[in-house]
Design brief:
- By secondary structure, this protein is of the alpha/beta class.
- The chain folds into 2 domains: 30 residues; 330 residues, TIM Barrel (Alpha-Beta Barrel), CATH 3.20.20.80.
- 42% of the residues lie in helices and 12% in strands.
- The protein has an 8-stranded parallel β-barrel with strand order 1-2-3-4-5-6-8-9.
- Helix 2 links the parallel strand 1 and strand 2.
- Helix 6 packs parallel to helix 7.
Length: 388
């Protein structure tokens, strides 16, 4: 009996000992697993990409360095400048000295400043009838086909020489911006191959000028398919430094803008969110498409023009903080690889109500924003970005 009890007791202790060993191994395994989970989580956090802070530029009327400085002061951060060379004459294209002299002084006054400059591809009105001003080619019809043949290279060679002269060879050039629309002389619908070849002619010509070898070029359609898919006019990777896209809070997409008269705030907000998700991001040539396009071609993305808009027709989002928030999230997301962006801070025609700052009108008179809530959010997000 005693021997049986001893045997039973021994067996029990053996069982307990084995169970303890198994439990110890299990605890050890669990501890190792926990450590792995914790380390993995820490690694995931450490490897998560931090938001980026791409340089921000602003347009505030033609040849207006003072306006840029006022915007910078209002926003509380340094900004780049954006400007547009007028397309009235070929003289403007080759010799925009009243632009370049003033901007050269501004750029070199403080470190880190840079100019983004839009250059017309063709001079004269949108019908292609030719320049209305200047000494060269006055009223001689113009075309992308002639540009593709090299007929206008001399104007761009002169522009490159003047950029060297005024020490502005770090300027980012936007030749023939928004070419996929129908509102500029260089509209490229039906002439996509000519546009692409003309672009190549310009880049080769300008980079061949001594001192201008490193000029950078932003190929720059506007959002949406517009008159045709802009990628049909792609000139080739070696001739483009940035894939640019102009983005405004305006659309004719169904169930977005304009909202019904007397619509409740919740309905207006729903439509604004739908305009962002369905049109600006997911339309056939929206931000998602062009972000992927830039990655596929190993180019950084740029947003050379963007802005709120209040259109007389109602097809703008108006005072829309959601648009500002979404643009900020997109621009600072490292996955989108945005190299720079420029806010279009003016109130122009009844269909160009973009201004967020307490700025000036085309006549120089003071002008206030039509978008006070969005402007406050803009200042909070973009003014804060560089100060962190």
């Amino acid at each position: 009996m005693i021997q049986k009890m001893r045997a039973k007791t021994k067996t029990s202790w053996d069982d307990l000992f084995l169970r303890a060993r198994r439990t110890k191994r299990l605890i050890g395994t669990l501890l190792v697993a926990c450590v792995i989970v914790i380390v993995t989580a820490r690694c995931s956090v450490s490897q998560a990409k931090e938001p980026i802070n791409p340089p921000m530029g602003v347009y505030r009327w033609v040849n207006a360095p003072k306006n840029i400085d006022e915007f910078s002061k209002w926003l509380g951060r340094p900004v780049w400048a954006e400007d547009f060379v007028g397309g009235e004459s070929w003289d403007n294209v080759g010799w925009p000295t009243w632009w370049l002299e003033g901007w050269s002084k501004w750029v070199h006054a403080k470190e880190g400043r840079r100019l983004v400059l839009a250059i017309p591809l063709l001079a004269g009105p949108v019908d292609g009838s030719g320049p209305t001003q200047g000494q060269k080619g006055l009223r001689v019809p113009v075309s992308l086909k002639l540009g593709a043949a090299g007929d206008y290279n001399e104007h761009f060679r002169q522009l490159a020489e003047n950029l060297v002269k005024y020490k502005l060879t770090d300027t980012i050039l936007r030749p023939g911006w928004e070419f996929n629309g129908g509102w500029y002389t260089w509209k490229a619908k039906g002439a996509e191959k000519d546009f692409a070849e003309y672009w190549r002619q310009i880049v080769r010509t300008m980079r061949a000028v001594k001192g201008a070898e490193k000029l950078t070029f932003c190929w720059n359609p506007t959002l949406g398919e517009q008159d045709f898919p802009a990628d049909l006019a792609w000139p080739g990777d070696e001739f483009v430094d940035y894939v640019g896209l102009d983005v405004y809070d305006e659309t004719w997409h169904p169930d977005t803008y304009p909202w019904p008269k007397g619509a409740a705030p919740a309905e207006i907000e729903r439509r604004r969110k739908k305009a962002w998700s369905d049109w600006i991001i997911a339309s056939p040539r929206g931000l998602a498409f062009w972000t992927k396009f830039a990655k596929d071609h190993k180019k950084p993305l740029a947003i050379p023009e963007w802005g709120l808009n209040q259109r007389a027709s109602g097809h703008g989002g108006g005072d829309n903080p959601h648009f500002i928030e979404q643009m900020h999230a997109f621009l600072t997301n490292p996955e989108n690889n945005v190299a720079f962006h420029c806010y279009f801070d003016i109130n122009g025609s009844e269909d160009q109500r973009h201004q967020v700052s307490p700025g000036v009108s085309a006549s120089g008179a003071p002008a206030q924003t039509d978008h006070p809530r969005a402007a406050a959010r803009f200042r909070e997000l973009f003014g804060k970005t560089l100060q962190q």
